[in-house]
Design goal:
It contains four helices and five strands; from the N terminus they run E-H-E-E-H-H-E-E-H. With about 160 residues, it is an alpha+beta fold. The strands form two sheets. Strands 1-5-2 form a three-stranded antiparallel beta sheet, with helices on one face. It has a two-stranded antiparallel ribbon with strand order 3-4. Helix 2 (about 65-85) runs antiparallel to helix 3. It starts with 14 loop residues before the first strand and ends with a helix. This is General stress protein 17M-like domain-containing protein.
Amino acid sequence: MTQLPLPTDPDTAARATVGTYPTYAAAQRAVDHLSDSGFPVRHATIVGTDLRLVETVLGRMTTPRAAAAGAASGAWLGVLIGLLLSVFTREAWWLVLPVTTAAGALWGAAAAGVAHAATRGVRDFTSTRRLAAASYDVTVTAAHSDDARRLLMQLAWRGY
C-alpha cells in the first residue's frame, strides 16, 4: 500500500507576510486577486492579529422574554413534528399541525421560562459575540513570497 504525502502544515512551514490589511474583506480581496492571477493559493493564509472578543449587549432578558423565545422555538419544533405526523394520519390530518404547534409552543415557553427563572438574575441580558482583529496579514510560504508580492503590487496599483 502506497501512502500519500501529508499536506504541509501552514503553521510549521517558513512563511512570509506579503500584505497587511485593515479589514478581513481587504485581505480576502488580496487572496482572491492572487487566485485570479493563477497563484497557488493553497500556500496562502489570512492571519488576524491582535484578536479581541467583542460582545454587543442587545437588551435585558426577563422571564417573560425568555418564555416568548422558548415558545417560538417550541412552535417551530411543533410544526416539524406536526408535518411528520400528518403524513401518517388518515382522518383529521389537518388538526395535527395546529395541535402540535400549540403543544410545542407551550412546552417551549414553560421550559425556557423555568430555565431562565432558575438562573436567579445571573446574566439577565442578551448579546451577540464576535472575534475582531486589529489587522489581517496575508502570508505565504517563503518559496512563493516574491511572486505573491509582485501580484499584490498590481492590486495596489489599481487602487484597491
